Amino acid sequence: MTLDTELFPYPLVGTYADRFHANRYALIGDAAVGMHPVTAHGWNFGLRGAATLAAEIQTACDLGLDFGARDVLSRYSDAHRQATWAMYVGTNTLVGLYTKTTPLAKLARKSLLMLGQHLPPAKRIIMNQLTEARG
Ligand SMILES: Cc1cc2nc3c(=O)[nH]c(=O)nc-3n(C[C@H](O)[C@H](O)[C@H](O)COP(=O)(O)OP(=O)(O)OC[C@H]3O[C@@H](n4cnc5c(N)ncnc54)[C@H](O)[C@@H]3O)c2cc1C
User: Fold this and answer.
1) Residue 20, pLDDT above cutoff 80
2) What span, in angstroms and rounded, lies between the C-alpha atoms of 78 and 87?
3) Which residue from 13, 30, 33 has its CB within 8 A of the most atoms of ligand 1, so it is best to mutate?
C-alpha cells in the first residue's frame, strides 16, 4: 500500500446533542449521539434512533395525527435519550480510565479486567448489555 494523502489526526470524541428535536425537526445518528468508537455503538444507536423515530411517526399516522407534531418528536427524543445516555456516559468514563497513565488508573483497569476474567456472571452482564442480549 502507498500513502495517497497527507496524514492528519482524526479526533475521536463523543458528542451528545442538548436536544434531539425542535420545531418539525428531529436529530438522528451521530448528529444526535456521537459515540466514542471504543464501545462500537455509534452505528447501532443510529439504527435504533431511526427505528424509534419511525415507530413514533407510524403510530401518529395510524391515529391520523400530524407526525411532525412536537409531542410525537418529543416521545422519540425521550426514548432515545433513555436508550443512549447511560452507555454514552459509561463509554466516556471507560475512555477516561483507559487513557490515563496514573498508577491509580492503571490499578483500576487491571482490577476491572481481572474481575471480568474471573467472574463469568459479571462478564456476561457486560456482554449482554453491549449486545442487548436477553438473559
Ligand atoms: C473509528 C470508528 C470506528 C467505529 N466503529 C463502530 C462500530 O464498530 N460499531 C458501531 O456501531 N459504530 C461504529 N462507529 C460509529 C459509526 O461509524 C457512526 O455512528 C456512523 O457512521 C454515523 O452515521 P451517520 O449517518 O449518523 O453519520 P455520518 O456517517 O458521519 O454521515 C454524515 C454524512 O453527512 C455528510 N455531511 C456533513 N455535513 C454535511 C452538509 N452540511 N451537507 C451535506 N452533507 C453533509 C458527511 O460528509 C457524511 O457523509 C465507528 C466510528 C469510528 C470513527
Assistant:
1) yes
2) 15
3) 30
Supply the pTM of this predicted model.
0.85
Average of pLDDT values for 59-68?
97
Distance in angstroms (rounded) separating the CA atoms of residues 94 and 73:
31
Query: What is the 3-state composition of the chain as percent helix, strand, coil, each rounded to the nearest 5?
Result: 65, 5, 30
| 48 pocket-lining for ligand 1 (C-beta < 6 Å) | no
Cα–Cα distances (Å) from 91 to 71, 99, 129, in that order, read: 30, 12, 12
pLDDT band at residue 121 using 50, 70 and 90 as cut-offs:
confident
Tell me the pLDDT of the chain averaged across its residues.
91
Distance 30 CA to ligand 1 centre (A): 6
For ligand 1, whether the C-beta of 116 sits within 6 Å is no
